Amino acid sequence: MRKNPSGIKEIARRAGVHHSTVSRVLNAQTRSLVSGKVATDILHIAEALGYRRNSMAVGLKTSRSFTIGVIVPDLTNPVFPPIVRAVERTMGTEGYVTVLADTDNSMETERIVLDSLYSRQVDGLILATALLNDDIVAECRKRLVPFVLVNRTISGATATSVVTNDSYGIRLAVEHLVELGHRKLAYVGGPLNASTSKSRHEGFREAMTAHRLKADPRIMYECRSLTSDAGSTACQSLIQSKRRFTAIVAANDLLALGCYAALDAAGLKCPADVSVTGYNDMPFAEHFAPPLTTLRIPLTEMGNQAALLLLRKMRDPKTVLPSVQLQPSLVVRGSTAPPSRSR
Amino acid sequence: MRKNPSGIKEIARRAGVHHSTVSRVLNAQTRSLVSGKVATDILHIAEALGYRRNSMAVGLKTSRSFTIGVIVPDLTNPVFPPIVRAVERTMGTEGYVTVLADTDNSMETERIVLDSLYSRQVDGLILATALLNDDIVAECRKRLVPFVLVNRTISGATATSVVTNDSYGIRLAVEHLVELGHRKLAYVGGPLNASTSKSRHEGFREAMTAHRLKADPRIMYECRSLTSDAGSTACQSLIQSKRRFTAIVAANDLLALGCYAALDAAGLKCPADVSVTGYNDMPFAEHFAPPLTTLRIPLTEMGNQAALLLLRKMRDPKTVLPSVQLQPSLVVRGSTAPPSRSR
DNA sequence: TTGTAGGCGTTATCAC
DNA sequence: GTGATAACGCCTACAA
Predict the structure, then answer these.
(1) Which CATH superfamily is B166-297 part of?
(2) Alpha-carbon gap: B206 to the closest alpha carbon of chain A (Å)
(3) Is some CB atom of chain B closer than 8 A to the CB atom of A243?
(4) Is B263 left (phi over 0), alpha (psi -120 to 50) or beta?
(5) How far is B6 from chain A (nearest CA, A)?
(6) CB within 8 A of B46, min separation 6: which ones?
(7) What are phi and psi of A290, to 5 degrees?
(8) Helix (H) / strand (E) containing A68
């Protein structure tokens, strides 16, 4: 009255061999140690029994779970699904399974999640949640779990990460607007404790300086979150400040969307009165009203690269892997136009 | 030279007790069996050692992994992230971890994924991929894994599922259009092997009949996939057919978006020339040009309910759980208006 | 080429 | 209340 009538022992019993032989056959690497006939026999029996190896037992023995964790701050932010999907797929082809965790932007739930993942013996981690100085990352290091950062990195960039060149991206946006004739550019950015927001912020200032324009801090906003609402609020203040501006550089598509709303509410037309640029080229950005001029970042590519790096790191934890930086590209659509004379 | 110097045995050694005692303390349920003093001692040591229970060992022993799988056809379809997120969160509070799998709409990868999940001893499954008669579902049944379907169900609805009332939703759309004065309604739907598409299709015909209108099969399309491209192609054929219609009922927001594109390409204005309704109220639908009139379905709620049902089923696999049907609600925005005189 | 034996970290069932 | 021991399903020297 065995519980699982399809374990390795059961197969051994039916094949009339010892279960260690079965084990060898069932592992591709050691299969060659077993005589061809016995091997095919065993394979057939296993097939007939619908045998599936018990990964918990394997994991316990080998202390490898073939599981990785990916942690995102908010899956409903359209940036993440393509990344997660790419990671899941790439890892899947190598036999890894992906545990997804959404921290809802909370350090505390991130810590809980991390604990849960550790206790599940994940072989590696992909973090899309890194802040500039991030305790969590420090802890991953201490625990010696291979990990790679994606989208954001930490200060000093001392961990291997896959990010895009954010300051360059913003520079492209600024240049585009300047070429259109804009001189008074406002900036609506995200929280400066994330590398992306920080680099974009800095990129904005540098690009302005490079064009001998002034990055006026009075028309630069730092939103607390990367949401449409936050962008809307910022843009509202901007309008109420009565300072002159003919274009808004937003550090994120959602923020840009918020700007749309605020402009609209104030009776300002985009792009006739005010041009707006976003960042990320999120899905469907081309369908917005107006279609959003923004920076495309290769999300799927980021996911793939991150997975590939993690795979290498898990294979050989000692190697120091180079970080990868991908290039954003400007996608010009309907939200930018030459400045209006009247502003 | 022990490998993991923070296992239950190490704690036992330091506390000068047997490791089974430690085990008892570390399990909330059995803690009361141990004397208070010993218990707190052990807890402290565990804390100091940064002890995390090894779930693989626990799983091997108890044959419960505290892991569930959620399988989606395409994570970049904006319907799924909110569902997945809700599932992950609800399961998380009960100590379960969520493995995400994206099948990319392929039965074959779904089967592979499923195998991988089985071998990981998942305690339950949430499937967002069900087709009307679905081998995969049949297999889950055979394997006796608790599962619940979400969004789509199977024919006969013989599995517990959390879905919305799709035919009712489409009826709302039709009624809205009829009230605006439309009589010639075209329909752009999805593949009929999914319950959602089928119910919406039927809902359309029923609603038309109920209003003494004809659901003209010559202006009803069945797209092969629920993508913007497919919708665009369908709408293109519709336009080229030269048949009269003043409104399009699309069975999905992405299809509706495709219709936007095709109308635009043909020089037709929405809603002035043609009204369009979608389905799902995907994120940012209100930002489209024009803002999309569509049916809102409670995605987060669906995820939560599915998780809750699964939790109950895992607790007691014998109970037959009732399916849940949620109601969609019409969100009227800018893509619908009274029909133009000239059409 | 195949069998033997021990153990991965934990829980469960005894006995003390 | 606590300890001893076996077992979960599998892998892996080592022996034969």
Answers:
(1) Response regulator (3.40.50.2300)
(2) 32
(3) no
(4) alpha
(5) 12
(6) B11, B22, B26
(7) -80, 165
(8) strand A67-72
Instruction: Check if residue B50 sits with its Cβ under 7 angstroms from strand C.
Output: no
pTM of the model: 0.94
CB contact (8 A) between residue B82 and residue A88 = no
CA A126 to chain centre: 8
Mean pLDDT of B221-230: 94
The verdict on A56 touching B (C-beta cutoff 8 Å) is yes
Contact criterion met (CB below 8 Å) for A116 and A100: no
Q: Are strands A294-296 and A147-150 parallel, antiparallel or unpaired?
A: unpaired
Q: Can you read off the two tokens belonging to residue A262?
A: 């605020």
What whole-number distance in Å separates Cα of residue A180 and Cα of residue B137? 57
In terms of DSSP bridges, do strands B329-331 and B294-296 run parallel, antiparallel, or are they unpaired? antiparallel
Question: Alpha helix locations (H) across B162-298?
Answer: 166-180, 195-210, 228-240, 253-265
Give strand D nucleotides closer than 7 A to any protein Cβ. Answer: 1-5, 7-13
| CATH fold for domain A1-51 | 434 Repressor (Amino-terminal Domain) (1.10.260)
CA distance B12 to B136: 46
Question: In angstroms, rounded to a whole number, what is the distance separating the alpha carbons of residues B56 and B66?
Answer: 10
* pLDDT (average), residues A14-39: 93
- The residues facing B250 across adjacent strands are B188
Distances (CA, A) of B259 to A88, B70, B174, B180, B331: 32, 31, 17, 20, 18
Which residue in B has a C-alpha nearest to residue A300's C-alpha? B76
CB of A106 within 7 Å of some strand C atom = no
Nearest by CB to A88, from B80, B82, B100: name it: B100
Nearest to B150 by CA among B80, B253, B248, B221: B80
The span from the CA of B245 to the CA of B243, in Å, is 7
A100: contact with B, CB 8 A cutoff: yes
* C-alpha atoms less than 13 angstroms from C-alpha of A42 in its C-beta half-sphere: 27
**Per-residue pLDDT tens over the stretch B126-160:** 999 999 999 999 999 998 999 999 999 999 889 99
CA distances from A182 to A166, A251, B157 (A): 21, 18, 59
- CB proximity B97 to A under 8 Å: yes
Domain-wise residue ranges, chain A: 1-51, 166-297
Confirm whether any atom of chain D, the nucleic acid strand, is less than 7 Å from CB of A62.
yes
In 3-state terms chain A splits into helix, strand, coil percentages (rounded to 5) of 45, 15, 40
pLDDT tens digit sequence for A284-309: 999 998 999 999 999 999 999 999 99
Which pLDDT score, from 0 to 100, does residue B341 have? 75
Contact between the CB of A43 and strand C at under 7 Å:
no
pLDDT digits (tens, 9 = 90+) for A238-276: 999 999 999 999 999 999 999 999 999 999 999 999 999
A2 pLDDT band, cuts 50/70/90, is very low
Residue A176 has pLDDT above 80, yes or no: yes
Q: Is the dihedral of CA B142, B143, B145, B151 positive or negative?
A: negative
Tokens 């585009």: give the residue: A176
Q: Is the pLDDT of residue B343 over 90?
A: no
Nearest beta carbon to residue B287 from set A88, A97, A257: A257
Q: In whole angstroms, what is the distance from residue A47 CA to residue A50 CA?
A: 5
CB contact under 8 A, A97 and B117: yes
Q: For position B4, what pLDDT does the model report?
A: 58
